[in-house]
Amino acid sequence: MAHDYLKEGLELDSKAGRVGLEIKATLLGGTLLICALIAKLTFDSEDPSKLLAGLATILLGTPLVWVAFKDLWQGHMHMNELVALAVLAAFAKGWYIEAGFIAFFMILSVLIENRTALGAQRDIEALVRITPTKAHKLDNGQETEVEARELIPGDVVRVRPGDNIPADGIVVTGNSTVNQANITGESIPADKVEGDDVFGGTINLTGSMDIKVTKAGEDTTLGRVKDMILEAERTKIPLMRMIDHYAGWYTPTVVMLVFIVWFYTSQTNPEAAAVAAISMLVVACPCPLILATPTAMVAGLSAAARLGVLVKNVEVLEGARNLTAMIFDKTGTLTTGQLEVTRLAPAEGVEGADLLLAAASAEQRSRHPVARAVFDVARKAKLHLPEPTEFHEEAGKGVRALVDGATILVGRGNWITQEEQDGHVKYLVEQAMADPEAEGLSTLFVVRNGQLLGWLGMADNTRPQAAGAIDSLREMGLKRLIIVTGDRESVAKRIAAQMHTEYRAEVLPHQKLEMVHDLKDKGHRVAVIGDGVNDAPALKAGDISIAMGAAGSDVAIQSASIALMNNNLNRIPFLIRLSRQTSRVIKQNMVIGGGFILLFLIFAAAGKVPPVVAAFLHVVSSLIVVFNSARLVRAGEDIEQAEHQALEATTQAQTSAANGDTPGQAVAAPA
Predict the structure, then answer these.
(1) 520 by DSSP, 3-state: which?
(2) Which pLDDT band, with edges at 50, 70 and 90, does 26 fall under?
(3) How far apart are CA 480 and CA 328, in angstroms?
(4) Stretch 275-287: mean pLDDT, rounded?
(5) 615/64 Cα distance (integer angstroms)
(6) Integer Cα distance of 3 and 11 in angstroms
(7) What is the CB-side half-sphere exposure of residue 625 using CA atoms within 13 A?
(8) Are 465 and 570 in contact (CB under 8 A)?
(9) Distance from C-alpha of 568 to C-alpha of 571, rounded to nearest angstrom
(10) How does residue 382 score in pLDDT terms, banded at 50, 70 and 90?
(11) Backbone angles phi, psi at 480, to 5 degrees
């Protein structure tokens, strides 16, 4: 991959070199034109002025005429023919200074277009050209510097503070803080400990880590991101395709109009007819129209990529503004996808700590997510867990363990009532299962030596930004927001109540697909949001598919039309706002470009606009379009600022806690 990046970098540098050479030639031609003007004002004879202006025109106009000739030879019609005709007409009339200035301003306009496209490409490539070319590979304890492109899955590399991580992998030893904003778009650095995933191209900030490579080269998340960005750049929205389609008719139509104006005007004033014709050719060059859409789209793509929103196709960015319905997969999208203990319900006469201790001691050998949730909360409570001497697990039901001579059962209520013979215990379990407080929770019952100690309630908690994101989507005019899940009714109802939206529970994958088709049949434009791994048919059926937390997931990046590299749900309203802003900017650019051409064509035909002024105004209109599009690059700054403020507040709170400040002291100190 590093080789590919180097190759692409050389290609970009080559383009930049050509642009640099064109700029130097343009400046030299402009200098000759200025000298020609000075000579015209200084000398009585016009010969020195014409000589300098003629050289400038040849230097500046030859590339334009040559490109126009090649286009015609290949059967293409572009703006180059109009420019070439204007320059040749002015040169033939002996208006060398005018011809030179027309060529100068038109080349300047083309350079603006090329420089804008190249600059935007460099901005996007900067996101993906950050993989180091070297890596420090560990082999039998010996550290060797190797080429990053030579790494293969299974290799172990050492990354020190300040190093770029050379490949995707898993931390095997050490811990650190990693800046992964260039992958996930999150401004807050992520803490990494043993067992955590890391991504190639991210920056190790603090500690030293040994990382086992899982993906290298083009298979890394960074490689997938690069492919998505480049694919997006290659696509065109319908408006761009329409402009391309009618481009072949544009030049002949303009030439016909110019001929008509010249023919009728030349009957009375041949000189004015030539001025009008040349000015019309210059004004009609559609640079502002050509720049209108791609500059806005590239700026929008750059803003989205900066916040970790990767759009595979610009048609998707353009179409997101029209969404009217959104289907959310619950687990891993609106929720974290990880169970957490949220409720301890000890039986009468039992301490909560005793309930948790018994459950965690019995569950500590299980690898089930429920068991891990119980074990994690006990570890955070710093409970000393005795090792079980006997352990038996029944998949999906519960565990039986012998701990300090006591038999402990931990599991679902139905399983406990089957395993426990004591009728009173069965009655208590059945009563607890009917407890309204347990509704919507995954419950584990704990029995020790025939005594019910109580139950633990666990939930897959919603993400912090979930409710706010859905409220924002509702305010933006989306009519149907639906949570779908394969979970039972009570769990789905609890999540939907927090989101204030509708839901469908116990839904199978084919039923989700039917929901998408049903909404589309009713006239909705539907977005389906999930983890990109499950429910692939529903994702593909939606008008737009969005993969949450796609960093590290090949399936997510490949299957979705939009990949959110982090799990921040506020990126979804941002995406729709960005789509609407981009559409507005494109329309503004089209009005600016089209309005300029129509207005000044009329003035030029009336002889009110000299050719040099027409060329200058052409550059101005192109710059207005470029700068108008550039406003989109700043989209999402409010989200970044909010995240930075949250980080600063968290850091201040942690510092205050470490210094032993009370909350009141922490607040009062800055004042």
Answers:
(1) helix
(2) confident
(3) 11
(4) 81
(5) 14
(6) 12
(7) 32
(8) yes
(9) 6
(10) confident
(11) -125, 120
Give the angle subtended at the CA of 325 by the CAs of 323 and 329, to the nearest 5°.
Answer: 120
Active-site hit among 155, 163, 168, 329 = 329
Per-residue CA distances from 39 to 35, 87, 95, 102 (Å): 6, 21, 15, 19
Residue with tokens 């983890």: 531
3-state helix, strand, coil in the chain (%, to 5): 60, 20, 25
Contact 458, 359 (CB under 8 A): no
Higher pLDDT: 484 or 219? It is 484
- What residues contact residue 153 under an 8 Å CB cut-off, 6+ apart? 213, 214, 215, 216
Around Cβ 84, how many Cβ atoms within 10 Å?
A: 23
Per residue in 647-661, is it b (16+ CB within 10 Å) or e — as a string?
Answer: eeeeeeeeebeeeeb
Contacts of 540 (CB under 8 A, 6+ apart): 559
On the 0-12 / 13-18 / 19+ scale of CB atoms within 10 A, 209 is: buried
Closest CA to 185 of 568, 558, 641, 649: 568
Mean pLDDT of 517-534: 82
**What is the per-residue pLDDT across 463-504, written as a single tens digit (0 to 9) for each?**
878 888 899 999 999 999 998 887 777 778 888 888 888 988
Residue 207 identity = G
**What's the token pair of residue 527?**
């977005």
pLDDT of 481 = 92
3-class state of residue 68 by DSSP: helix
- CB under 8 Å to 206, separation ≥6 — which residues? 161, 176, 177
Residue type at position 51? L
pLDDT band at 317 (very low <50, low <70, confident <90, very high): confident
3-class secondary-structure state, position 400: strand
71 is annotated as an active-site residue = no
Contact 257, 277 (CB under 8 A): no
Q: For the residues 556-585, what does the mean pLDDT come to?
A: 84
Predicted local distance difference test score (pLDDT) of residue 524: 92
More confident residue, 317 or 26: 317
How far is it, in rounded angstroms, from Cα 119 to Cα 125?
10
List phi, psi (to 5°) of 574: -60, -40
* Residue found by looking up tokens 């400046």 in the block: 27
Read off the pTM: 0.69
Task: Pick the closest to residue 189 from 172, 202, 200, 201 (CA basis).
Answer: 202
Six-digit token string for 383: 């409970």
For residues 197 and 184, is the Cβ–Cβ distance under 8 A?
A: no
DSSP class of residue 366? -
Q: Using alpha carbons, select from 238, 292, 297, 243 the residue that is nearest to residue 589.
A: 292
**Residue whose pair of structure tokens reads 């290799």 in the numeric block:** 155
Which three-class secondary structure state does DSSP give residue 598? helix
